[in-house]
Structure to design on (533 residues):
């Protein structure tokens, strides 16, 4: 038996192989004479035989185990599916968590500016020198200028050897504080500020990743939606074939009883009914397969997949001829809004931060430090001079440190320069690739529309021929074989027309995904109108 290939599988031909090779019967072959009862072939048991009674209709869409059926009366639109993807599609919701991941990394990077608190307590007793000491301090790196400051309080009571008299404090303790100010290295940027800047850029980098995933999932949802609509139209076309043959069976039953035609004509027609009912079953399986695939994107409010029922099917909208203006608009939109450009620009900005840090590492470490100490209360010693208490000390220092070769910093600069050149080339290719993607999608859309126009003419002509052949059969000038062949041609043309509309709307979705306009609000249709595809 011949078959017709589609995206969802092959649909068998409704014409038996033997019919495709038989010549047309001659006018005087005697087939119009009714056969004797013992000569009539036994009819198929599953087909009703009483005159005037049509065969049973093909089975309705089957129940899918474990599935939640969405059998609402209003048609399911593409906007409904895309809205469901935005709200409930698990993979998109998972990608959106990148915002939280990036925010957590920023919080972690801000830890470099946390206030560090330290404390200690010591007691030495009994011994030659019995003393008690405590120390509490805080240090803080400021988020600008590389400045760090510290302060603290300590106590030292008891007996101390002369070489440790600095541990001795007045009876209220000693307060201290100080600043470290970088004069060269770490002045404009340091590791802590570079880490914070990178984490802030990572938050922005999450958006292009989310947008890229959103477009991919929207495109997949749209293609699944059009496949589902097409499978429903193919089943409708197959059901229409069964209806035609069933109506013809009623007419042939009366004509066989009257002796106008031979019973073989009705048997041929009943064989067609059986074949066409099988075709409906296969088409129904294609609908179920497409509905199951669509349920990954079409979900209820709790996020559970919904199997769209037969009531939600509708014919696909008629294609609209694409224009050159649309191509220019799509190309301009894609070059301005595609997330690839934003991602590469942010990656470049991140590398610039690394380059600033690497350049900073080539500078000499030159830090100015100011430290002050002040005892409080009254001392317990009459010592004066450097060994006395009630001290007030202010100390200033200049610290210098630098590796002689600085190979680490120079090597980083060299690597970052090469990475920046890489990004420039990637940005150039991304523009070429996106331009080619939009051109290819528009070319497919344009050719799909041209193919649809050609197939529409074919369907119109095949419909006229099939209708004329059925009229000839009613007038007794044709036979079931010829009608079946005409209807087969009409059916094949209808499948091509359905496929052409599918291909057009799939190409339309691809173009909208390429120019970032595919979505429930910006898909080019009003989500609340009947025009939403």
């Amino acid at each position: 038996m011949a078959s017709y290939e589609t995206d969802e599988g092959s649909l068998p031909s409704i014409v038996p192989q033997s019919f495709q090779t038989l010549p047309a019967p001659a006018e005087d072959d005697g087939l119009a004479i009714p056969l004797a009862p013992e000569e009539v072939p036994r009819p198929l048991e599953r087909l009703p035989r009483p005159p005037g009674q049509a065969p049973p209709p093909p089975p309705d869409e089957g129940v899918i185990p474990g599935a939640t059926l969405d059998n609402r009366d209003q048609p399911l639109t593409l906007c409904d599916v895309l809205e469901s993807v935005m709200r409930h599609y698990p993979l998109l919701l998972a990608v959106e968590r990148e915002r939280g991941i990036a925010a957590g990394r920023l919080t972690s990077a801000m830890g470099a500016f946390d206030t560090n608190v330290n404390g200690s307590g010591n007691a030495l007793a009994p011994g030659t020198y019995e003393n008690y000491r405590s120390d509490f301090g805080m240090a803080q790196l400021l988020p600008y200028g590389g400045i760090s400051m510290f302060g603290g309080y300590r106590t030292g009571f008891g007996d101390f050897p002369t070489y440790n008299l600095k541990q001795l404090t007045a009876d209220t303790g000693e307060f201290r504080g100080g600043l470290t100010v970088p004069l060269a290295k770490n002045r404009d940027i340091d590791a802590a500020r570079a880490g914070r800047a990178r984490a802030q850029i990572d938050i922005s980098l999450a958006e292009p990743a989310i947008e890229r995933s959103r477009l991919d999932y929207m495109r997949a949802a749209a293609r699944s939606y059009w496949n589902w609509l097409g499978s429903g139209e193919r089943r409708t076309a197959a059901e229409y074939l069964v209806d035609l043959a069933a109506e013809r069976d009623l007419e042939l039953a009366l004509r066989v009883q009257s002796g106008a035609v031979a019973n073989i004509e009705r048997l041929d027609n009943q064989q067609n009914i059986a074949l066409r009912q099988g075709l409906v079953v296969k088409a129904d399986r294609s609908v179920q397969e497409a509905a199951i695939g669509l349920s990954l994107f079409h979900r209820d409010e709790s996020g559970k997949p919904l199997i769209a029922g037969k009531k939600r099917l509708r014919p696909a909208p008629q294609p609209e001829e694409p224009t050159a203006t649309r191509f220019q608009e799509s190309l301009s939109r894609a070059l301005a809004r595609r997330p690839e450009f934003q991602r590469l620009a942010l990656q470049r900005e991140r590398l610039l931060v690394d380059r600033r840090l690497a350049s900073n590492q080539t500078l000499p470490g030159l830090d100015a430090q100011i430290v002050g100490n002040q005892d409080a209360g009254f001392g317990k010693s009459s010592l004066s001079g450097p060994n006395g208490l009630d001290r007030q000390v202010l100390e200033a220092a200049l610290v210098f440190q630098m590796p002689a070769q600085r190979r680490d910093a120079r090597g980083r600069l060299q690597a970052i320069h090469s990475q920046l050149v890489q990004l420039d080339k990637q940005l150039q290719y991304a523009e070429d690739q996106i331009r080619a993607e939009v051109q290819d999608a528009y070319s497919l859309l344009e050719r799909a529309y041209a193919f649809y126009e050609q197939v529409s003419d074919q369907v119109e002509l095949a419909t006229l021929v099939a209708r004329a052949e059925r009229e000839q059969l009613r007038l007794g000038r044709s036979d079931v074989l010829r009608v079946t062949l005409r209807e087969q041609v009409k059916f094949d043309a209808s499948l091509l027309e359905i496929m052409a509309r599918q291909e057009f709307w799939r190409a339309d979705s691809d173009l909208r995904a390429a120019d970032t306009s595919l979505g429930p609000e910006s898909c080019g249709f009003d989500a609340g109108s009947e025009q939403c595809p």
About this structure: The first strand starts at residue 3 and ends at 6. DSSP finds ten helices and ten strands in the chain. Strands lie at 3-6, 9-12, 69-70, 116-124, 131-141, 148-158, 174-182, 307-308, 365-375, 392-401.
